[in-house]
């Protein structure tokens, strides 16, 4: 019998996060204070984030950051996650490629997001913080943080993008089950939300707006900090447990990936699977290709512009050097809610600029077609976000079929889609559509960032 799953015992849960900043040939450009335009210091972030996260955010020195024992203990309820050889998918495609996936859907929250949520909740508790606020798009991050805060005895308030609040009522229930308080965003409970609703009472929200609301609550409430589920450097770093495990598991399988693929919202699960392997490209001359799969309707890496922009719609965050569609970008209401963010993480943007990674854009219908094939072959119904990674993997596997090359492809299955069956319904009923963004529309939104770089 051929070995399908490559498993590691709990004792192999990584002891350190990998901080790629320390080995990047070109360090990320500094975050800028929005008013003074001066480079940010960790202290500037302390009012918003936990101290440890703020320090990690700007740490360009230490390649390895110890994972607290309490966090490893919580990881033990679902890590190490399985690495799986997708034989059935390979067979269905008739490809000579070897396809592996790292299954992050097995976490209590159903996605990779818990890897950072547990770390952030722990650091908050250590610092004496009693409340965390956050935003959530598809509800995955909110679910993860709700669970993580429960584990460490912290109260959690979640602003959920209104379109997802309506599309994904069960994600809301999951957060409630784990004990969080949920508000649809934009809401009238913050100035940021009020401003947006006054301009357009029918606004259905965006991650950018929900972020503004959560930050506003955090800075105006004592003992309350803000936690972000993607984009930021410390979040991307927490996710490297994925790739560090995968590295050992690929070794068990006797292979090394030629191509590593993940879907891309702000970049955290991509960072998680990619950075540990990318360090060998940077340090040891390996030639692995890294492919980020983003939605066609939110194409920051393929059609965005590298420049300073705000991380949120209301312009409350520092200025970040990143590939962006402009902080005023209004993404279409695709079902992959976690991929509807206007920018790419700062580290990822620099790596993209320096040619260490590539990006492809995937049409919504193609992503679901790929997801359905994966479900029928491998037996896991993927999250709509993860479907993008699968679609990109299938494209590469079919190229191998043409050339006859048996490449080794590793992709990250960022989450399962059990709470997204409404999206699958829409695909099967023929209601689903693709969303195209014209160059003119993109240019109009990107101008909101251009204006900050004058
Ligand atoms: C949030 C989410 C994503 C996108 O976020 P990244 O930070 O880019 O990883 C992808 N997949 C799932 C399942 C998610 O919940």
Topology:
Layout: E1 5-6, E2 16-18, H1 42-45, H2 51-57, E3 64-66, H3 69-75, E4 83-85, H4 87-93, E5 98-103, H5 114-126, E6 131-136, H6 140-151, E7 155-161, H7 162-167, H8 169-177, E8 181-185, H9 191-199, H10 207-220, E9 224-226, H11 233-238, H12 240-252, E10 259-263, H13 268-284, E11 289-295, H14 300-303, E12 305-310, E13 319-324, H15 346-353, E14 358-362, H16 364-378, H17 384-403, E15 408-413, H18 421-428, H19 439-450
Parallel strand pairs: 5-15, 6-7, 6-9, 7-8, 10-11, 10-15, 11-14
Antiparallel strand pairs: 1-4, 2-3, 4-5, 12-13
Helix pairs in contact: 3-5, 4-16, 5-6, 6-8, 9-10, 12-13, 16-17
Residues 111, 113, 138, 140-141, 230, 263-270, 338-339, 383, 385-386, 414-415 line the site of pyridoxal-5'-phosphate.
Describe it.
- This protein has helices at about 40-45, 50-55, 70-75, 85-95, 115-125, 140-150, 160-165, 170-175, 190-200, 205-220, 235-240, 240-250, 270-285, 300-305, 345-355, 365-380, 385-405, 420-430, 440-450; strands at about 5, 15-20, 65, 85, 100-105, 130-135, 155-160, 180-185, 225, 260-265, 290-295, 305-310, 320-325, 360, 410-415.
- Helix 3 (about 70-75) packs antiparallel against helix 5, helix 5 runs parallel beside helix 6 (about 140-150) and helix 16 crosses helix 17 (about 385-405).
- It is α/β, with parallel strands linked by helices and about 450 residues long.
- The protein contains 19 helices and 15 strands.
- It is about 40% helix and about 15% strand.
- The model has no long low-confidence stretch (mean pLDDT about 95).
- The protein folds into 2 domains: about 80-110 and about 235-454, Rossmann fold; about 115-230, Rossmann fold, CATH 3.40.50.
- It has a 7-stranded mixed beta sheet with strand order 1-4-5-15-10-11-14, with helices on both faces. It has a 4-stranded parallel beta sheet with strand order 8-7-6-9, with helices on both faces.
- The termini are far apart.
- The structure holds pyridoxal-5'-phosphate (PLP).
- Pyridoxal-5'-phosphate binds near residues 140 and 338.
């Amino acid at each position: 019998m051929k070995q399908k799953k490559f498993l590691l015992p709990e004792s192999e849960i990584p002891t350190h996060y990998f901080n790629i900043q320390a080995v990047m040939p070109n360090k990320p450009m500094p975050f800028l204070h929005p008013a003074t335009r001066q480079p940010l210091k960790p202290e500037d972030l302390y009012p918003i984030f936990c101290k440890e996260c703020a320090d990690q955010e700007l740490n360009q020195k230490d390649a390895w950051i110890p994972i607290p024992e309490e966090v490893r203990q919580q990881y033990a309820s679902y890590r190490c996650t399985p690495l799986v050889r997708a034989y059935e998918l390979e067979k269905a495609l008739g490809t000579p490629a070897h396809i592996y996936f790292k299954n992050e859907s097995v976490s209590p929250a159903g996605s990779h997001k818990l890897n950072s949520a547990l770390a952030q909740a722990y650091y908050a508790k250590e610092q004496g913080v009693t409340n965390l606020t956050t935003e959530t798009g598809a509800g995955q991050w909110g679910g993860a943080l709700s669970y993580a805060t429960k584990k460490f005895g912290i109260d959690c308030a979640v602003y959920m993008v209104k379109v997802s609040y309506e599309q994904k009522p069960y994600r809301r229930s999951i957060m409630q089950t784990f004990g969080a308080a949920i508000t649809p965003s934009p809401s009238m409970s913050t100035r940021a939300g009020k401003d947006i609703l006054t301009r357009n009472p029918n606004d259905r929200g965006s991650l950018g707006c929900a972020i503004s609301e959560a930050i506003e609550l955090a800075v105006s409430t004592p003992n309350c900090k803000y936690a972000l589920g993607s984009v930021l450097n410390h979040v991307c770093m927490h996710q490297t447990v994925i790739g560090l495990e995968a590295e050992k598991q690929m070794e068990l399988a006797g292979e090394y990936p030629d191509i590593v693929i993940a879907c891309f919202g702000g970049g955290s699960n991509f960072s998680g699977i990619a950075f540990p392997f990318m360090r060998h490209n940077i340090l040891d001359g390996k030639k692995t290709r890294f492919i980020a799969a983003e939605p066609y309707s939110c194409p920051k890496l393929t059609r965005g512009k590298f420049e300073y922009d705000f991380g949120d719609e209301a312009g409350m965050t520092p200025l970040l050097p990143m590939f962006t569609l402009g902080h005023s970008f209004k993404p279409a209401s695709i079902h992959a809610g976690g991929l509807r963010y206007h920018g790419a993480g700062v580290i990822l943007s620099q790596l993209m600029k320096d040619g260490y990674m590539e990006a492809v854009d995937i049409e919504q219908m193609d992503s679901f077609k790929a997801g359905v094939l994966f479900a029928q072959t491998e037996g896991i119904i993927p999250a709509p976000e993860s479907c993008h990674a699968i679609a990109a993997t299938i494209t590469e596997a079919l190229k191998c079929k043409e050339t006859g090359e048996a490449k080794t492809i590793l992709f990250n299955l960022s989450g399962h889609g059990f709470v997204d069956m409404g999206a699958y319904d829409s695909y099967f009923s023929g209601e689903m559509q693709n969303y195209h963004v014209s160059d003119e529309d993109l240019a109009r939104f990107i101008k909101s960032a251009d204006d900050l770089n004058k």
